[in-house]
Write a structure and sequence with these properties.
The complex is a heterodimer of chains A (about 260) and B (about 300). Chain A starts with a helix and ends with a helix. The model of chain A has no long low-confidence stretch (mean pLDDT about 85). Helices cover about 80% and strands about 0% of the residues of chain A. Chain A has one domain. Chain A is mainly alpha-helical. With about 300 residues, chain B is an all-alpha fold. Chain B has 2 domains: about 150 residues, Tetratricopeptide repeat domain (Serine Threonine Protein Phosphatase 5, Tetratricopeptide repeat, Alpha Horseshoe); about 70 residues. Chain B has 12 helices and 2 strands. In chain B, strands 1-2 form a two-stranded antiparallel ribbon. In chain B, strand 1 and strand 2 form a beta hairpin. Chain B is flat. The chains are: A mainly alpha (about 260), B mainly alpha (about 300). At the A-B interface, helix 3 and helix 11 of A face helix 3 of B.
Amino acid sequence: MRTRIAYIASNTFREAVRDRVLYNLIAFALLLSGAAILVGQISIEIEKLVVINLGLTAVSLFGVVIAIFIGIGLVSKEIEKRTLYTVLSRPVRRWEFIVGKFFGLAGTLVVNTFFMAIGVFAALFYVSHKFVRADALLLVALYFIILEFLIICSLALLFSSFSSPLLSAVFAFSLFVIGSFAEDLRNFAGMAHGVSRWLATGAAYLVPNFSAFNVITSIAHEQPVAGQLVLQNTLYALFYAAMALSGAVLIFEYRDLK
Amino acid sequence: MKPRQKTTMVASACLILSLAASLFVLNRIDQLRPQATLDEVLFLSSPKVIQRASLGYDGLMACIYWTRAVQYFGYRHHNFAASYNLLAPLLEITTHLDPHLVVAYEFGSSFLAPKPPQGAGQPERALQLMQYGIQNNPDNWRLYYDLGFVYYMELRDYKQAAATFERGSHVPNAHPFLKILAAQMAQHAGEYETARMLWSATYQTTQDKQIKENAVEHLRALRVDEDVKHLQEAVTRFGERTGRLPASMAELVAAEGLAGTPADPDGHPYKLTPEGRVEVRVPEDFPFATRGLPPGFKPKFRGIL
């Protein structure tokens, strides 16, 4: 079982890294990190802040775009090319296929993040001429960004398991936007009454809460991140991704592929 | 030549020509509408709306708005603008997006408080900005220093300045001079020595090159102000004693028993006009001086501050 999942994951990874769009997006993210140096020069005393803010935002946003655009095609493309039938005709369970795809995409995103992070650190070194201990906090922000990607990957896969690529992209991106407002949604639920309170509270807890993963601003000011937050965010991302992945498996398991 | 090569060449030539032409036309359009830039428009003025729209990337938005504020101030300052309507909203948006962006409070107050053309002439907005900064960064002693500075330099409210320096001196790791400043302010507010002390403290505690240059310019101007004040008093004394104005600076120097001809910080001797006014030789070199400048002289500020 493990071998089959690993095999599907490695194939998904290989297929993803062959995609030229991926390289364009990474190049664009690296360019943005480089441009941060120029932006810092037309302002006052925020060179390092701009490099961290713009660099990590680029890593995060481009990663989200990559996760969505690769994730939405993972299942539908296999159906379209009819390669899914070849895979499933072998002793591969449907859920193994979904889980393998998830790990493949997650691996691609981790590797992408690694390369984009090198760009951010290079830009940071260019403006600061040295690394200080507080710069290690960037690794925490990058870790949170990767956790965010895991959730988005699983959501993209969930939508991809039952709808067309275009609709999956719309759903996944909308959920990303809504997830960024999750705390506001919770505040709204707190103010509502009756049924709307229950509905809003349900929605607020069902959508992914991305705001907890965004520590870029505080890290730019060298404010430490609590160890508890790292732990809780990790658990939350793992549980949420597992939930979405389970949904994807359930839907795909019963999907009529004829 | 193959047809494909021919097509490539023609298309490339067309591309370059159209690009050049479009740039030329755009340049002409800009000349027709020189004031068509959107620098006086703030489409979104609510910090909360901008914060929501930033999808959590508010640190980046704060950097963008801070850069916009710097560019807005720099452009208008360079052009000797009399109004800075967008400056305060831009700074408020910046600091609401990132309340820990200390640089926006420090520089923002020095943009807002001084009278035009040095600044926006809005010391009350500068006070609000600094108070918001202190509220969000209560452990940053520099913000208390900057707030006290605005009270002292722009509002001449020595009591508040002293109280602010005193509050700042209690912040952990505060620079010891805040305590001295508070005491100095209480006893000798309004004296040149106190102002000199403030600018010297600014010079010593900042790492920023522009702020250092600005402090040096103010210290030079203070020296001119003080020299001219003393010399002008000497001219008055001479008039009271002799019933006429001194014919030259040399006569004044001799009558007062001065060691030599007094000179400004650049070494240029002060001049005495036939009307009995003491003036600097090169007023452009002392943009912050308040005395010793020819009547109607408008200084040109070289730096941002």
